[in-house]
Design goal:
Blueprint (H helix, E strand, L loop, with lengths): L2 E8 L8 H7 L1 H21 L4 E7 L8 H8 L3 E4 L5 H12 L4 E5 L8 H10 L4 E6 L4 E6 L18 H12 L3 E7 L5 H8 L7 H10 L1
Parallel strand pairs: 1-2, 1-4, 2-3, 5-7
Antiparallel strand pairs: 4-6, 5-6
Length: 216
């Protein structure tokens, strides 16, 4: 089965990106970290064993932190616009828009510690089942579906809630998806997440370097 890796991302524009993180470290620093996290994620996806690579993007990239780096990194991806009102609708539409044939493996931009090996393993699992990767805060960091229509289940799931992961699993199972769970990861939402996630990144990770620079 062919696999399309789908990154759902928001342009890291100061004042618009990572607002919960920005509340304690400021708009510019939050946008810088969001850009670093997205760049690390794109690196991992680029090196993963998948057939196609798509980014569903919202926001104005020209106004983003590290805009030139992001533009260069995105040159090797198919970039599509997010569409829809709520997050659930935008995710469901992104799955539908990214799917040409085969499965779609979707991740966000809040887990810079993700590796090409982890993504390749998730893609391989899609040969026999759908996959879901839980996040420590009760959400999820990855969703792989062999039938993109199952992503419509996300329309009825409350997003950014402590029960989002469990509710997503229940909705997908009810829709007929067969789920294999991936390793749990911690995503970056608050200042308290920065050091813990940075420690899990490689020494050359942009996110890790940015966190270290902030703490000095």
């Amino acid at each position: 089965m062919t696999v399309t890796a789908l990154v759902v991302a928001k342009a890291p524009v100061p004042g618009l990106a990572k607002t919960r993180l920005a509340a304690t470290i400021g708009d510019a620093a939050a946008a810088e970290l969001a850009a670093a996290s997205l760049l690390d994620t794109l690196d991992a996806v680029s090196a993963a064993d998948v057939d196609r690579r798509v980014v569903a993007l919202t926001g104005t990239l020209a106004d983003a932190a590290r805009a030139h780096e992001l533009t260069r990194a995105l040159a090797s991806f198919t970039v599509i616009a997010q569409r829809g009102d709520g997050l659930g609708e935008r995710l469901a539409n992104a799955h539908a828009d990214a799917a040409t044939s085969g499965a779609v493996l979707q991740i966000g931009m809040d887990t810079p510690q993700v590796t090409a090996l982890l993504l390749s393993d998730a893609a391989a699992r899609l040969g026999s089942s759908d996959v879901l990767g839980s996040a420590e805060d009760g959400g999820w960091w990855a969703l792989g579906l062999r039938n993109p229509d199952h992503a419509r289940s996300l329309l009825d799931v409350p997003m950014s809630a402590p029960s989002t992961g469990a509710d997503t699993l229940a909705a997908l199972t009810a829709a007929g998806a067969s789920i294999t769970m991936l390793p749990e990861l911690r995503d970056v939402d608050f200042e308290s997440d920065l050091e813990a996630v940075a420690q899990l990144c490689t020494p050359t990770s942009r996110f890790r370097i940015s966190v270290r620079q902030m703490s000095n």
